[in-house]
Amino acid sequence: MTETLRILVGSKNPVKINAARSIFSLYYPAMTIDCQGVDAPSQVPDQPIGEDETRIGAENRVLYCQQYHQADFYVAMEGGAEQFSYGPATFAFVVIANNQQRVIGRSSNLPLPLSLYNALLQGKELGDVMDNAFNTSNIKQQGGAIGLLTNHHATRESTYTQALTLAMAPFLHPALYAKEV
């Protein structure tokens, strides 16, 4: 009988749950991965604007999961957007935690058309803006803006998977990441 690794994702979005499941399956192939999603409040707007707001949303989701649930790992992903000096872009922050440590990671940027970014500044969510622009339905639980804007060569899940892969490094090599006093 194989040992079970319990992963709790701070969202019910299947894209986020699948990304977390794939990463833990990759790093812990001998274990049974029990990966579940729960509604965890981000305590930031539905469409975070700026890196700080986006990161805080992911951190809050993990903290909620840790406070109200038991798991081996807690995971959250929060998508946001910002106007950088080189143009508007969307990205995500990821947080992975266990009882010993918490790691924050970030995805790469996807450039956004200014008209779409301006809709976000008016309080709309990126998924809804993309559904309207591309005549899709519930794209945020599918390929996301990333899928639509890259002609499906990348997806929301692939971007989360890459960010989570990188954020796992401190868990894989804890001695190298141990804080020096």
TrEMBL record:
PANTHER family: NON-CANONICAL PURINE NTP PHOSPHATASE_PRRC1 DOMAIN-CONTAINING PROTEIN (PTHR34699:SF2), PTHR34699
Record keyword Metal-binding present: yes
GO molecular-function term, one example from the UniProt record: hydrolase activity
Quaternary context: Homodimer.
Manner of cofactor binding, per the entry note: Binds 1 divalent metal cation per subunit; can use either Mg(2+) or Mn(2+).
InterPro entries recorded: ITPase-like_fam, Non_canon_purine_NTPase, NTPase/PRRC1, YjjX_NTPase
The protein's role, per its UniProt record: Phosphatase that hydrolyzes non-canonical purine nucleotides such as XTP and ITP to their respective diphosphate derivatives. Probably excludes non-canonical purines from DNA/RNA precursor pool, thus preventing their incorporation into DNA/RNA and avoiding chromosomal lesions.
The reaction(s) this protein catalyses: XTP + H2O = XDP + phosphate + H(+); ITP + H2O = IDP + phosphate + H(+)
Residue numbers binding Mg(2+): 70
Enzyme Commission (EC) number: 3.6.1.73
Keyword Transferase: no
Record-given protein name: Inosine/xanthosine triphosphatase
Necessary cofactors: Mg(2+); Mn(2+)
High-level lineage: Bacteria, Pseudomonadati, Pseudomonadota, Gammaproteobacteria, Alteromonadales
Entry's family note: Belongs to the YjjX NTPase family.
Keywords assigned by UniProt, alphabetized: Hydrolase, Magnesium, Manganese, Metal-binding, Nucleotide metabolism, Nucleotide-binding
Non-canonical purine NTP phosphatase/PRRC1 domain ranges (all copies): 10-172
Any matching Pfam family: NTPase_I-T
Gene source species: Pseudoalteromonas prydzensis
